[in-house]
Amino acid sequence: MSTDFKSIPLIDIGPLLAKCDDPDMGEDPGVAEVVRQLDRACREAGFFYVKGHGIPESLIKKVRTSTREFFKLPYEEKSKIKMTPVAGYRGYQRVGENITKGVPDMHEAIDCYREVRQGMYGDLGKVMEGCNQWPVNPPDLKPIMEEYVSLCTGGSPNEFEGQRAGDPFWVLRIIGYPGASKANGLGTPENDIGCGAHTDYGLLTLVNQDDDITALQVKNLSGEWISAVPIPGTFVCNIGDMLKVWSNGLYDSTLHRVINSCPRYRVCVAYFYEPNFDVPVEPLDVCVRRTGGTRKFGRACYGEHLVSKVQTNFVE
Ligand SMILES: NC(=[NH2+])NCCC[C@H](N)C(=O)O
Ligand SMILES: O=C(O)CCC(=O)C(=O)O
Ligand SMILES: [Fe+2]
């Protein structure tokens, strides 16, 4: 929300993808153009659509189809993988269980996180230790999501990623938003909030949303909510709190929320590409220079940030 943007830009990252393993990519004019567009979008909106990302459309659709099938199951079935602190906060939450800024959200979800083995990050990672809880039904949900996570995570280490996200953490939220009239019998407006205004926590979020329902909204500098209308074949991308710190605020982690005012059920699968769990995150010198020479943030740590969020997302 750094500017008064009225729409969210669409960027074809195809030329960047084509050169991602080429050591001379820095000299390629097509790559330079994509980078200019990304930099501008991150400064102006903190949100952009990407196409030309190389993830097969068939898989993207299967991710949503199996999600919809799972949420159609009766509560007794879904609650077999109920999220608990003992499971490292992984698993199913029913509508109203996720809390944003003290208000229950009108969505249900399965939260998945990269596996954290015992002692992997010492005391810092204790709370997140555990492996994902996958449902038995639909049986293909687990393999589909695992393939999806592996493609979204990718694996092209360069200088930035090597030190800071060469061993990236990731989060997958498999989310369902009941249709407007079903969320509550009374139609009270405060209950229509599928997910309250928040920023994402890490580096970059890839939103895979239903093609035919507009519900995600992004806040601009004047406080207007700009809809991220679905564009088939694209991801909606937005930057997270850690990238804001690394960029010294040159890029902002933009506030967004979800309101499903459509009578139909909406599904969304959000993949969060995150820094290394335990890396110190501080403004980069190059970004401090570009933002007037003053450091705006002290040292942060993604793992600490995640743990504090997770613990307040589910207080009863
Ligand atoms: N991991 C997420 N981005 N979760 C959705 C955001 C809502 C969450 N309850 C929060 O307060 O931030
Ligand atoms: O449902 C959406 O479109 C976005 C969800 C979201 O913002 C989140 O889970 O962090
Ligand atoms: Fe979000």
TrEMBL record:
Domain Fe2OG dioxygenase: 167-275
Stated family: Belongs to the iron/ascorbate-dependent oxidoreductase family.
Record field: catalytic activity: L-homoarginine + 2-oxoglutarate + O2 = 6-hydroxy-L-homoarginine + succinate + CO2
GO MF assignments: 2-oxoglutarate-dependent dioxygenase activity; metal ion binding
UniProt organism field: Eucalyptus grandis (Flooded gum)
Main subcellular localisation: cytoplasm
InterPro entries cross-referenced by the UniProt entry: DIOX_N, IPNS-like_FE2OG_OXY, IPNS-like_sf, Iron_ascorbate_oxido_reductase, Oxoglu/Fe-dep_dioxygenase_dom
Name assigned to this protein: Fe2OG dioxygenase domain-containing protein
Keywords associated with the record: Cytoplasm, Dioxygenase, Iron, Metal-binding, Oxidoreductase
Stored Pfam families: 2OG-FeII_Oxy (PF03171), DIOX_N (PF14226)
Annotated compartments: Cytoplasm, Cytosol
